[in-house]
Amino acid sequence: MTQPIILPEKLDTAAASGLREVLMKTPAGPLSLDGRRVKMLGALGLQLLLAAQIRVRAEGHAFTLQASKELALDIETMGASGLLDASLTTVPGERA
User: Fold this and answer.
1) pTM of structure
2) 92 φ/ψ angles, rounded to the nearest 5 degrees
């Protein structure tokens, strides 16, 4: 698996176009996203994460998303916890 793509602290509309460009340039294969530093997830950011997961899995590859507590909570609040697979992890030095 390649190095994880590190997601920005705010994954909102302003950050979505940059993330979209990065994801579009990512070659086919397994995809790992590091969201351990994400503090806020907006609807457009969620849409991009879901689309990336669907694309990668449709191609038969693994998709992993490491999530901060805030990211996991935002995913749950938007009703997508059953749709988006995110493993809750913590940043070193952060209390669980």
Assistant:
1) 0.86
2) -50, 135
Q: How far are the Cα atoms of 14, 18, 47, 49 from residue 43, in angstroms, in the given order?
A: 11, 15, 6, 10
**pLDDT tens, residue by residue, 36-95:** 999 999 999 999 999 999 999 999 999 999 999 999 999 999 999 888 877 766 555 454
Please report, in angstroms and rounded to a whole number, the separation of the first and last CA atoms in the chain: 27
Position 52, amino acid: A
Q: List Cβ neighbours of 41 (8 Å cut-off, separation of 6 or more).
A: 11, 12, 49, 70, 71, 74, 75, 78
CATH number of 5-88: 3.30.750.24
Sorted by where each begins, the domain ranges of the chain are 5-88
Q: In this structure, how many other beta carbons lie within 10 angstroms of the beta carbon of residue 58?
A: 8
